[in-house]
Description:
Elements: E1 2-5, E2 8-16, E3 19-24, H1 35-41, E4 45-50, H2 66-79, E5 86-90, H3 92-103, E6 110-114, H4 125-138, H5 141-148, H6 154-158, E7 164-171, H7 176-185, E8 189-198, H8 208-216
Parallel strand pairs: 3-4, 3-5, 5-6, 6-7, 7-8
Antiparallel strand pairs: 1-2, 2-4
Helix pairs in contact: 1-8, 2-3, 4-5
Amino acid sequence: MLIKVNEVTLFYQKYGSGNPLIMLHGNGETHEIFNRSISLLQEYFTVYAIDFRDHGNSSKVSELHYEDHAKDIYEFINQLNIKNPVYYGFSDGGIVGLMLASEYPNLFSKLIVSGPNINPKGLRICSRLMMKLMYIINKSQKVKMMLQEPNISLSDLSKIKVPTYITGGSFDVITKKHLYLIHENVKNSILKIFKYHTHTNYIVDSEIIGKYIIEVCK
């Protein structure tokens, strides 16, 4: 399905029935990374799985910024009149979730974010160096955004009032120190570290995160 927001067209798929659940993927991915989890989640939720702008079947753009992603998703929710959805975001999707929950404290019923960072320094040094090399080679706007953004302050995090669940892998590209920093500054939050997992492997083509979402939303 297609929807026009903020002068771009977003592609999304809708599955199942029940309370609304919005799912947003990470950088360079599409909603399809959640297919295995959606097969479980659609029994409990009406799932809206969205492709960010310049990803998947959504509109291509010349520049990318997290703020534009956040505006797109806010408009998506308003246009479809989705009331108090659960929000799940992975990586870039998690960043956008933190931004929206900070700016609109009553928008979500629950916020679940996996592997988010509030600034580029939250990434391990080796990951940042690799990204810099990638950008030198391909000048990708997706990589440029990760190198320069986000810039979410601790004051922004303190504005989040909704019950929040933060996850990471024990071998995540986001440092544990950074995940704990987010957890400590979001008052009503729980942090779960998935042992022996990376940034992606408990989420991409996995049922693990779907089971976790069901568990925390019971």
